[in-house]
Amino acid sequence: MATTAELFEEPFVADEYIERLVWRTPGGGSRGGPEAFDPKRLLEEFVNHIQELQIMDERIQRKVEKLEQQCQKEAKEFAKKVQELQKSNQVAFQHFQELDEHISYVATKVCHLGDQLEGVNTPRQRAVEAQKLMKYFNEFLDGELKSDVFTNSEKIKEAADIIQKLHLIAQELPFDRFSEVKSKIASKYHDLECQLIQEFTSAQRRGEISRMREVAAVLLHFKGYSHCVDVYIKQCQEGAYLRNDIFEDAAILCQRVNKQVGDIFSNPETVLAKLIQNVFEIKLQSFVKDQLEECRKSDAEQYLKNLYDLYTRTTNLSSKLMEFNLGTDKQTFLSKLIKSIFTSYLENYIEVETGYLKSRSAMILQRYYDSKNHQKRSIGTGGIQDLKERIRQRTNLPLGPSIDTHGETFLSQEVVVNLLQETKQAFERCHRLSDPSDLPRNAFRIFTILVEFLCIEHIDYALETGLAGIPSSDSRNANLYFLDVVQQANTIFHLFDKQFNDHLMPLISSSPKLSECLQKKKEIIEQMEMKLDTGIDRTLNCMIGQMKHILAAEQKKTDFKPEDENNVLIQYTNACVKVCAYVRKQVEKIKNSMDGKNVDTVLMELGVRFHRLIYEHLQQYSYSCMGGMLAICDVAEYRKCAKDFKIPLVLQLFDTLHALCNLLVVAPDNLKQVCSGEQLANLDKNILHSFVQLRADYRSARLARHFS
Description:
It contains 25 helices and no strands. Helix content is 75%, strand content 0%. The protein is mainly alpha-helical. Among the domains are: 12-27 and 38-140; 566-704, Methane Monooxygenase Hydroxylase, Chain G, domain 1, CATH 1.20.58. Helix 9 (246-261) runs parallel beside helix 11 (300-321), helix 16 packs antiparallel against helix 17 and helix 17 runs antiparallel to helix 18 (513-554).
């Protein structure tokens, strides 16, 4: 049986159990093992093992039944014991309730007895206290203070309590009968008050916080309590302002006092608020006045810088003080303190700001024009000037004499940066120093000054001067500087627009002034764009005029009708070379002077005019066969030049012109076929005819017949 028990392992698996049994049985191995396989012996072993298992099962079953009977017996005994404990618990709970009721009854009796004792003791204590006060009052009445409480300096606290009560009593007595004793009590009251304040002062100097707290608690009921607070505030500030930065000193002082004031006074928030008020109204106000008054009338720039700096540092200090407990509405309290310091300076701030900004801007511009040895000419406004402007816009005619600017644009990025920097600082000061209700209006005033000096006095003046400097279209070897003006004006206006968005918009975004500023900006842009368009248009005319001069001077009639048809060695004419060189130079200049879609727009306009010029120029000559080939070469070169424009329309125009030039050399029999080709099919027949007429052999009957 022991062997059978050894075969059981946890967890029990029947297959493994059979394997272990077979492995232990002699003759139960496989046929190649040390012992031959013996099925009979293995069967016998299985039968014996089954009998052993049956015997083991019966034994275990008997043991289980015995344990179950024992468990049932113990469960009954445990249930009986639990019932007995429940009964005992109910009895104990009843006893506890009775005890609780008894305790409550006794406590009620004790409270009642205490109330009765207090009702008897309180009048008794009052009577004893009144007797003592009468005794002390008699001493004042007799004029001789004998009690130890008045003569012993260590009992000043008790004396203060007594004299404070006597002082209240004396105020109720008639003056005619008790004037002398009232005077003595008042004198003693004052003496004790002074002694207490002196004791508080000495304790503060020694740094004895506990003693200061005791004396302050006694003085709380005296009239001189506020004087005690004043003394504390005064002594706190002794040696507190040793640095050059009074604002940092004030912040450190308030932080130090905030840590200890709660350990001394019963109303720390009131004391701390009084200290802060004292710092603002005395120290800071005096400092601000000294800093501003000396430069208020003599140096507006320094005055505005000092005002902005002092106001910023004061508000920063106020933000730090917001961390402390100063009562219910500390925001309003601190705002009033700041206002009391700066009101007289902020009332007329914007007048000083705008006055300074105007004079500073005018000086920056004048200094620039002086450096150029340029005397600004007045640009008139009103009837005649407006009439001239309207005529110039409609006719593109130069009105008045052309001015030689010697290549000067009269635009300076340095001047612009200086003007924008001054305005940026003005916007920052305006944001900080203006009342919220006045902020949009003040910001608009600064913006109008920027428009006046940057946009009108500088950019618009440069545009007017640049327009006046554009030569007429028939001028020879004209220097075209207006594109330089366009380039610089474009850069400057980007800077102006950036400042408008970055510094002005946040100040006016939620006010009616926003639409007014946007409208003013729109008007300025439209006015400048109109002048830029006029100048660019006239500049393009001058470019075309220059090309006309080159063609007129360099192009010869014999170029397209050479005397010796068989001895033409050039690929294209000299006029074509010079015109293309000039055009490429101007295209590069336009690309450098403009950005975005403006480049394409101007190049397209120049390309169209360039095409019209070449088209009309070719119409002036008669072409032999070799001359027509040379004209095709010229147009091919012009077309190559047109590719630099990178404008599809311009390239298409020159492709068509190149196709038209083929009519100058094509055989008469092929004219109709060429004219019906893809590039020429949609053209008007008159245009085609006009080019065919340019052929030297046009009058031959054969050619006329083929083209008719």
